[in-house]
Design brief:
Keywords: Disulfide bond, Signal. This is Ig-like domain-containing protein. InterPro entries: Ig-like_dom, Ig-like_dom_sf, Ig-like_fold, Ig_Fc_receptor, Ig_sub. It comes from Cirrhinus mrigala. This protein is mainly β. The chain folds into 3 domains: 75 residues, Immunoglobulin-like (Sandwich), CATH 2.60.40; 88 residues, Immunoglobulin-like, CATH 2.60.40.10; 89 residues, Immunoglobulin-like (Sandwich), CATH 2.60.40. The chain is built from 1 helix and 29 strands. Strands 4, 5, 7, 8 and 9 form a 5-stranded antiparallel β-sheet that branches. Strands 14-21-20-16-17 form a 5-stranded mixed β-sheet, with no helix packed on it. It is globular. The termini are far apart. About 6% of the residues have low confidence.
Length: 290
């Protein structure tokens, strides 16, 4: 009788995991074995898929992760998210108590979309901009699509100390992108882009939202028709209607976390002055304040 050795692997294979990263835990890549049992710090979870997606992680996700398939238990994987240990609000000023220096807590470079948010239509292109303080020649960028990582082409602008990366989503529902300095463990923040095939999109920011920030959630319709009305929802509960197509949340807290969506009524008046009104719903998109 053969002995099956299970393991939990982390994708992308980040040397450090930072606050705001999206990471995937995989139980030995055995898709055909169902269900998979997951344990965090010895406590069984309700999740039963061989793959566990953790979005916009914080130190609350720290712990020891194990999985079980066919009665065999995996070795433990310890996940540590580098971030602030404690936040104290004293006289309306934030004082940070941390175990590490700021340079260790934050990514070494910044990666962000030049325009647009985290959601895009199938086949649409999106430019990401990488900004670093050192030599860009030593940096390479990658994309995680499903369970496979691929290198990306990088267009360098050395004078501006930045690089531009063009990304298009064709098949994968989501794409996590990051850049890394060759021969080191230094990397940028990770950006996750999500694909939709719907006419209506709820577009959250492509970078994590920090507590206290103001965030704008946009309801966008492919083809840029005239918006007649937009209704925003959080966890399928109606928030409010808006003719502008933007929902603003000021002074965000973790109470604002949830799945946001929108329903748009629109008219393609630039095609025909007599065009009929149309309606459509967006996919639900997660907002997580860290």
């Amino acid at each position: 009788m053969s002995v099956v050795f299970l393991s939990v692997s982390l994708l992308p294979k980040f040397p450090q995991v930072y606050v705001g990263d999206d990471v995937t835990l995989i139980c030995n890549r055995k898709k055909e074995i169902k269900p998979t049992k997951w344990f965090i710090n010895g406590i069984q979870q309700s999740h039963q898929d061989y793959l566990m997606l953790l979005t916009t992680v914080t130190p609350k996700n720290n712990g020891v992760y194990q999985c079980e398939q066919g009665g065999s238990m995996s070795d433990p994987l310890k996940l540590t998210v580098l971030g602030m240990n404690t936040i104290l609000n004293v006289h309306n000023r934030l004082f940070l108590m941390i175990f590490h220096s700021f340079s260790e807590l934050e990514p070494h470079a910044q990666l962000s979309p030049s325009i647009g948010g985290a959601v895009m239509n199938k086949g649409e292109g999106r430019n990401l901009v990488l900004q670093v303080d050192d030599d860009l020649k030593d940096w390479a960028c990658f994309a995680l699509m499903g369970e496979s990582s691929f290198p990306l082409g990088v267009n360098l602008d050395e004078k501006a100390k930045r690089a531009v990366i063009l990304v298009a989503l064709k098949e994968a529902e989501r794409d996590t992108l990051w850049c890394k300095k060759k021969g080191t463990t230094l990397r940028s923040n990770a950006v996750t882009l999500k694909m939709t095939e719907l006419m209506v999109m709820l577009v959250p920011p492509a970078v994590p939202v920090l507590q206290g920030e103001t965030v704008a959630l946009r309801c966008v319709v492919w083809g840029s028709p005239k918006l007649e009305s937009v209704v925003f929802y959080r966890n399928q509960t109606k928030l409010r209607s808006s003719p502008e197509g933007t929902y603003i949340i000021t002074n965000t807290t973790q109470d604002d976390n949830g799945k946001y969506s929108c329903r748009a009524t629109y008219t393609f008046t630039h095609i025909s002055g007599e065009a009929e009104q149309q309606e459509g719903d967006s996919d639900a998109q997660e907002l997580k304040v860290v």
